[in-house]
């Protein structure tokens, strides 16, 4: 038979799935002998049963009854007893913390009789009345779903009657009046008197907590945080203890270390004569936890000892809630404490020094996300003025610029050299150009999955969205309190906090980012030293190498500074933008002879391009991808040409329009690109390979060690690679240059036939961007801003498959290709150069799949190095945990 | 050690790979004891050695020498003997017949001495001289690569000198003169005298044949026919026999049955006193083979007996070449005879009656290609006028219409109800609309892989291309002999023969096509009876069912007539064209409320659509695919709107343009389609499922047996299917209608995660069109007309992967998904509804992969039924042949 109820004494911290986080940790503390009020947990399984069938499991009644008895006997009180009643709280607690999202009911067990007993036992009549009216108020709202407004109105009426400014000024008598009024409100609202049976209160409250799992706000929160919707919540039934029983009572929250900075020493707040909700509500003035030493030294010392026990036991910073009832300390909750990115690094390093964890573990205690947060520039945190408005922090970073209100203006001003912040009510795909041009993006509508948010994160661009207090019009915006932002006004936005300021706020470059490009200074602060320590250990542990994607010498230098040991993707099409675009246009539109002339011109230019990047990466590999232009990007716009021809027709224009129409593709992503173009335009790839060979030769003559590798894009069939690689190798031979020739694996068919393709390749580089596009049938340009938000809401995926590798689909192709490729060609070198190469979760997969390197944008190199180390250490740790 | 030479007595018909077709069959006839001149074959392996290394294998010399000795001893003559010389021919012969593509040299072994012996032995001085000059002429051209023109000029000069009108009028003396002149020409051309060493002649001729494998015309032919380029050719060295030794000599070609009609009885041509080349050249008037009975009864009787032996032995129609030298019959070649589509069916059936083959084998003797040829309409073959011009038959069928010279005019006239033939110099993707509108397509440029050809075949549209004799101008075309075709002129084109006529030629509907839609008439002709017999046996043998793709009741009825036992794909987006397009446009552009109103309207219309098709297929399954529109096809053209807005701006137009721009997709193929649209537009799929359920209910009430199945398109992840299928099943339940709910497998990820997806699906239908597009990264609309021709030339593939399933890439996904799907859900029903469902080669794959049915266009149903039967019989046959 299924067990639906666990006593705190019979669970442990490992049972989060079944007991929820709160319940599991209460059990763990109980097992440690810490002073936890007696109680038990109704499992998430009971919740799932309830949510599926609409009713509680029948066997639950007996189980709860039995455990309740144990609590009663431990406390020496009975639920509903008219002389000395036991009160309990009914608290939600899911596997993953969902603060404030679900319901809790306190003081269950009071009724017209037992309230008298409570008054007698506590010796505090007013306290008893207050506790009862709180139960009725909370029960009515949470369990019975009544409108809370009349209850608030009743309090206001009593206060007016009594001439009291605050509730605390109400007399005992007034409190009893309030109890009566609240009972009347329940009778009116539900047609029935307030339930007097404590067990009825208990069951109704339990069901209410279960129901609250599916409340709208809880669902929204789960979608946002990527928490599965079928987990359900547990319910914790805990004997009530009271921090509001006078000056020798109180309540507090604490961390075993400072969660903001990681500084050692306890950190928390305490409030005398109050309950936990008063601390959380922020309606009372708390004192620093250290003050408790003066107020109640015994409890303080005991608390310190408990906190030390907890930190040693959990081997991490703990976050606790406690209550002191008339000099007795009770632990109400603990969990591993959340912390800032900076604190995560210093704490991890300190815990090593304290002997609590190993360096291996310390590397696992920080995340790539945290490291990348530390690398973004920020606004100076100390002296910030109050923001003008706040929105949703959608894509981190600090951006400052002049306001613009259309994509066109953003592009114009950016081209004129200005930093601009693009402000839109909401963005859509037409704004893409403007978003690329802008330093930051600000919208009035939409959340973290809105078009603006998704696209900005994809571009690594600062974005604040959903600033509801901002009314965005055609050429200006107005805040709720009437401040107007006009085009040209300077504004500053913080994508990490959601703050928006009028005017220019100074941006501080990140000291962590600066650290990565320099030697460790002797006077480095604790954070930098912690980062340095963990990064060194990650590097020393990792098997995967980290390369970078870079198209210019400058990018390559930056990548090298950040620790890249190769260039995994040099996109030659980026060398054809700007003024050279016309050459490509001519190349595509010309006949064979015309093409020859263009190619001769391009050879000179490309030789220079390659010399620059090979020089910057002297001694390290540089994988140069031969041209893979989406054709349409190099042709004049068919719409512009059509309009021009319709308004002022010319013969030349007509000729061009005809040619562009001929080359126009319905789906350029799946059109004449990559190796296809290389095979169709005679001499194109040959020109590029010659330029690479000539650049390498020249550098060698200077005594350098250029190490180019040639990569053929968009191969779907071994014959395509055979033709282009054979020609490339012949040209390299002619020049006497040795260079590996390999291919992107970015078309599903290439992955499926990797065994064949490997016979012609020195290396594979997985192009997981295109591979994701084709495997899912997603045109990234179209879908991310169109229905990805909806898909995340619907739970099709939590994270965009363009951000984190879809291991079950795309990953399957990668693993399959690695296996078949290596089987056919054991020397095959394997890497990845899609954006996933910089994503920690994906890097873990690439490590497990057996790749040799990941290549990512220069700025992500440190994150990738950390993730590579973590993946290797997790392997090691995984082996250990298996042997337990 | 490798054996490079096989005597005719030591090979057999099974050794085609090594001996080539000609050599293997000569060996087989030798083994049968038929009179084959002595000889031997140098293998294709020697050729491959030669082509790779540039030289003959060293051990070949000894081997050839030894086999030559055997021939000499068999003939009692020696090569180069001055008294009684042996002459041999050196004949090419590859695995697959490549008629006229490679070289042959006759009369090897003659020199200034042996020619005297030949004269003496033959008693014919003129014959000897003529034979010698033929050797020199052929050797100079073929082996030495000299220009043939001076040799022809020398003959003309001699004829003029002799006052002779033809070569046969030249005297013996003139022949000798010609020998001298030819020898002079060789000396002048090569700087060396004509080689007198017979062995030197032999080796040079052998190398020349090997080299001719890589001649330009041979390469072109292979590419066109899809013959691998690394096979190489064999060389046959055969003792010469002479049909030109007077009236008791002669030569002929024959078939054991009529290859045009399949009629029983021998069929062929005979020419007295001539060599084979004279018959082939068509320069002499041959007589019917039956005349030989009068000319040389003994040889005739012997030939008839041999032909019977051959047909019994090969169990098929044979095509032979023979020579009679002074009353002695020699067999020079045999092979299984090529035949027309009609003959293939009647012969296969007749051979069963003759007891030569089983009915199982007979089904394997015809091809889907032949059946589909028989189903095209034709021009009346008997009374055809001479065509105006001829081109390349690129896509079969007979089309008649008025000429148009632009896509625009084609569309206009077609919309006005006219049949048009679109005439273009060459077509490009802009012509697509016109090609769709036209009854037939005619181009002046390009071969079978040109844009016009590829696209027309894809559409099943009649096409003649590469009519070089036609000069196509802007609004008319001129033939080489000055005939002008103007817009509006009627023309007729035959895509099966390449003929083009001015004026209207009557089109005969195909009697075979008519047969499929009717009961077999009692007076059916031999062809129809043969087709009926083989189709019945194919149906009885097959495991795969054949369903059809149909979107209307009329299409469904036609499919049923052709033998479809279900509709595998009813595309509901086809129900939204025409006047209803506006509704879809409104649906897409409206807000939620507006959408609701449109959906209500659509529900009515769709209920009617579904009622019609379910009624037509009463009692048979109809798989209805929920809407999968490429969004852009339902929206106004962004180019037209932009032009309109630029020229005559209106507010309404601007609003529309903004909306269209917002929805505009860069790659609509990979955009907001299929289930994505179904999940984004609230109520869309629900409306369609309701319409299906209502239609089914209404038909049931009429007492019919509607069997709808609901198919969700473009699923990539199980959650998409879960959401849409759950909703569909709920609606079906509400209506009390039972219907399977399944999904297309057309996105690579769906195939990769088929095990998960199967848990939510009652059936899979492989959409191999889209699956091919995404697996290869090919946008069909763009690539077929753009670089597919080039890719076929380069050998990336022989056949477009859209025509025949790419088994190694796309097929791998299909097999994988079948396996994983069935493992997860043993009851899963599996089919395919891409165009590959009508392609015989692909059907063989689907049979092997274990699908339950294939679904194809109604017209292809008979072909698919035949292929399904063949696939099952090949399985059976495969088992048999294993046990041999």
UniProtKB/TrEMBL annotation, chains A, B:
This is Pyruvate, phosphate dikinase. Coiled coil: none annotated. Its cofactor is Mg(2+). Mg(2+) binds at residues 746, 770. InterPro entries: ATP_grasp_subdomain_1, PEP-util_enz_mobile_dom, PEP_util_AS, PEP_util_C, Phosphohistidine_dom_sf, PPDK_AMP/ATP-bd, Pyruvate_phosphate_dikinase, Pyrv/PenolPyrv_kinase-like_dom. Its EC number is 2.7.9.1. GO terms for molecular function: ATP binding; kinase activity; metal ion binding; pyruvate, phosphate dikinase activity. It holds the Pfam family PEP-utilizers_C. Keywords: ATP-binding, Kinase, Magnesium, Metal-binding, Nucleotide-binding, Pyruvate, Transferase. Substrate binds at residues 571, 625, 746, 767-770. It comes from Natronoglycomyces albus. Residues 534-871 form the PEP-utilising enzyme C-terminal domain. The active site is at 451 (tele-phosphohistidine intermediate), 833 (proton donor). Transmembrane segments: none annotated. It comes from the Bacteria. It catalyses: pyruvate + phosphate + ATP = phosphoenolpyruvate + AMP + diphosphate + H(+). Belongs to the PEP-utilizing enzyme family. Residues 418-498 form the PEP-utilising enzyme mobile domain. Residues 59-284, 292-344 form the Pyruvate phosphate dikinase AMP/ATP-binding domain.
């Amino acid at each position: 038979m299924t067990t639906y109820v666990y006593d705190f004494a019979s669970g442990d911290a490992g049972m989060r799935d079944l007991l929820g986080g709160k319940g599991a940790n209460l059990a763990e503390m109980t097992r440690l002998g810490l002073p936890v009020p007696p109680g038990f947990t109704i499992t998430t399984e009971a919740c799932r049963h309830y949510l599926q069938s609409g009713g509680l499991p029948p066997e639950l009644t007996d189980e709860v009854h039995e455990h309740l008895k144990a609590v009663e006997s431990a406390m020496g009180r009975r639920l509903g007893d008219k002389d000395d009643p036991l009160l309990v709280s009914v608290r939600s607690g899911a596997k993953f913390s969902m603060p404030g999202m679900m319901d809790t009911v306190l003081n269950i067990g009071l009724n017209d009789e037992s309230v008298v007993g409570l008054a007698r036992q506590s010796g505090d009549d007013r306290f008893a009345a207050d506790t009862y009216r709180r139960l009725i108020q909370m029960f009515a709202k949470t369990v019975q779903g009544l409108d809370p407004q009349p209850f608030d109105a009743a309090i206001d009426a009593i206060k007016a009657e009594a001439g009291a400014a605050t509730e605390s000024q109400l007399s005992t008598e007034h409190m009893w009046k309030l109890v009566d009024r609240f009972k009347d409100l329940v009778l009116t609202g539900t047609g029935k008197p307030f339930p007097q049976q404590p067990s009825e209160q208990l069951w109704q409250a339990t069901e209410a907590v279960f129901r609250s799992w599916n409340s709208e706000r809880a669902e929204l929160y789960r979608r946002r945080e990527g928490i599965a919707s079928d987990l359900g919540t547990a319910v914790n039934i805990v004997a009530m203890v009271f921090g509001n029983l006078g000056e020798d009572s109180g309540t507090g929250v604490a961390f075993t270390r400072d969660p903001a900075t990681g500084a050692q020493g306890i950190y928390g707040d305490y409030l005398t004569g109050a309950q936990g909700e008063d601390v959380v509500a922020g309606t009372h003035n708390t004192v620093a936890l250290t003050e408790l030493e003066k107020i109640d030294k015994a409890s303080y010392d005991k608390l310190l000892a408990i906190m030390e026990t907890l930190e040693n036991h959990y081997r991490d910073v703990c976050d606790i809630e406690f209550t002191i009832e008339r000099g007795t300390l009770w632990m109400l909750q603990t969990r591993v404490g959340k912390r800032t990115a900076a604190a995560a690094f210093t704490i991890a390093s300190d815990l090593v020094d304290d002997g609590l964890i190993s360096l291996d573990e310390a590397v696992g205690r920080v995340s790539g996300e945290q490291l990348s947060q530390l690398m973004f520039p920020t606004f100076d945190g100390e002296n910030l003025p109050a923001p003008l408005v706040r929105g949703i922090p959608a894509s981190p970073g600090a951006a400052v610029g002049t306001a613009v209100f259309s994509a066109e203006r953003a592009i114009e001003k950016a081209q004129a050299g200005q930093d601009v912040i693009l402000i839109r009510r909401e963005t859509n795909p037409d704004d893409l150009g403007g978003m690329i041009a802008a330093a930051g993006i600000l919208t009035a509508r939409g959340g973290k999955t809105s078009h603006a948010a998704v696209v900005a994160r994809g571009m690594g661009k600062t974005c604040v969205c959903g600033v509801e207090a901002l009314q965005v019009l055609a050429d200006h915006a107005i805040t709720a309190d009437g401040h107007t932002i006009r085009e040209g006004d300077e504004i500053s936005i913080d994508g990490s906090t959601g703050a928006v300021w009028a005017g220019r706020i100074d941006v501080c470059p990140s000291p962590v980012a600066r650290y990565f490009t320099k030697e460790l200074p002797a006077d480095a602060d604790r954070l930098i030293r912690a980062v340095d320590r963990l990064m060194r250990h990650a590097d020393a542990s990792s098997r995967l190498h980290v390369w970078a994607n870079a198209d210019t010498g400058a990018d390559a230098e930056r990548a090298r500074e950040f620790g890249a040991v190769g260039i995994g993707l040099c996109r030659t099409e980026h060398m054809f933008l700007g003024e050279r675009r016309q050459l490509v246009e001519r190349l595509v539109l010309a006949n064979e002879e015309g093409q020859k002339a263009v190619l001769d011109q391009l050879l000179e230019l490309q030789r220079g391009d390659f010399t620059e990047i090979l020089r910057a990466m002297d001694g390290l590999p540089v994988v140069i991808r031969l041209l893979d232009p989406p054709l349409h990007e190099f042709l004049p716009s068919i719409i512009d040409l059509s309009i021009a021809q319709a308004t002022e027709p010319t013969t030349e224009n007509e000729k061009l329009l005809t040619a562009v129409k001929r080359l126009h593709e319905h789906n350029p992503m799946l059109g004449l690109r990559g190796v296809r173009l290389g095979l169709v335009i005679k001499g194109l790839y040959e020109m590029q390979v010659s330029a690479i060979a000539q650049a390498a030769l020249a550098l060698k003559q200077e005594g350098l060690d250029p190490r180019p590798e040639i990569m053929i894009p968009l191969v779907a069939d071994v014959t395509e690679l055979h033709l282009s690689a054979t020609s490339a190798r012949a040209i390299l031979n002619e020049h006497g240059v040795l260079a590996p020739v390999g291919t992107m694996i970015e078309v599903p068919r290439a992955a499926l036939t990797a065994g064949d393709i490997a016979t012609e390749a020195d290396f594979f580089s997985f192009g997981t961007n295109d591979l994701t596009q084709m495997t899912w049938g997603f045109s990234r340009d179209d879908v991310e801003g169109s229905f990805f938000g909806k898909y995340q809401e619907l739970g099709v995926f939590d994270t965009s498959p363009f951000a984190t590798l879809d291991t079950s689909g795309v990953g399957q192709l990668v693993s399959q290709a690695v296996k078949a490729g290596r089987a056919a060609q054991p020397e095959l070198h394997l890497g990845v150069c899609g954006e996933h190469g910089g994503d920690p979760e994906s890097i873990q997969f690439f490590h497990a799949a057996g790749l040799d390197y990941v290549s990512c944008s220069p700025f992500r190199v440190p994150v990738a190095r950390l993730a590579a180390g973590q993946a290797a250490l997790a392997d090691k740790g995984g082996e250990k945990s298996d042997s337990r």
